[in-house]
Design brief:
four-stranded antiparallel sheet; alpha+beta; 91 residues
């Protein structure tokens, strides 16, 4: 299975995976509006033994087969103030 990977021109570290290059037919219009203009990055084979940094390959394959796309959001930003307050409270 191959998929095309795009990055968002509006949201940092946000990626959209679709089944074929420039095939956004199954991606909801509202998602595309929020995502912005997709910037093509690469065509990628989804081999079973392949590991991806922040995406479970099996979940990605399942989402592509069932929905026709997969949206990878940016990781949550650490709240350093909250962590500091929790650490000080524990002491």
């Amino acid at each position: 299975m191959l998929c095309a990977v795009y990055k968002s021109n509006r949201k940092q570290e946000t990626y959209l995976y679709v089944e074929g290059r420039d095939d956004f037919s199954r991606v909801p219009e509202a998602l595309l509006k929020t995502f912005g203009t997709p910037v093509f990055l690469m065509i990628m084979p989804l081999k079973k033994e392949r590991e991806l940094a922040r995406v479970d390959i099996n979940k990605l394959r399942l989402e592509l087969q069932t929905k026709g796309y997969y949206l990878q959001l940016a990781p949550p930003v650490d709240n350093l103030l909250k962590a500091h307050l929790l650490q000080n409270k524990a002491q």
